[in-house]
Design brief:
Blueprint: E1 2-9, E2 13-16, H1 18-28, E3 32-39, E4 44-50, H2 54-67, H3 88-97, E5 101-107, E6 110-111, E7 117-123, E8 129-138
Antiparallel strand pairs: 1-8, 2-7, 3-5, 3-8, 4-7, 5-6
Length: about 140
């Protein structure tokens, strides 16, 4: 079974879509299997992270902004690919450092996430985008 999750972003940050994935898994009717998620873009990624304390998401956003700043930062003046804006090449770098696919086991038709784990699209561009994540369940 496959589905596409359409996720609207409003700029850089983490966008949780755990509930949509849980509904997809329940509707699939597969008791035991493997859920694969794959993002179809080169400037965003996927992440499993804590979803209980919103400060985790803020800290994650701040860390990656410091780790790979926009191309207009002095420390990034070595970048060559800047024709799509100062956030584009840094977004590609962040996507290379984080997963673009996730594999999550299913048991009882439910993704086996930990108590505090949520599934996120990690948008690395500063402008809004419409992103697609493909979900696939294998028995």
């Amino acid at each position: 079974m496959q589905s596409i999750f359409n996720i609207k972003t409003d700029g850089a940050g983490l966008y949780e879509f755990t509930d949509e994935v849980v509904r997809f898994a329940a509707d699939a009717g597969v008791e035991t299997g493997l859920l694969t998620l794959f993002v179809r873009h080169t400037s965003c990624s996927l992440l499993i992270s804590e979803n209980a304390d919103p400060d985790v998401i803020l800290d994650m956003n701040d860390f990656f902004a410091r780790l790979v700043p926009d191309a207009n930062a002095a420390s990034m003046n070595w970048l060559r690919h800047t024709c799509e804006g100062p956030d584009d090449m840094p977004a590609h770098i962040k996507a290379a450092l984080t997963p673009v696919s996730l594999s999550i086991p299913l048991c009882g038709g439910v993704p086996l996430l930990g108590t505090w784990q949520g599934i996120y699209l990690f948008e690395h561009r500063t402008h809004s985008h419409q992103r697609e994540v493909v979900g696939h369940i294998s028995p």
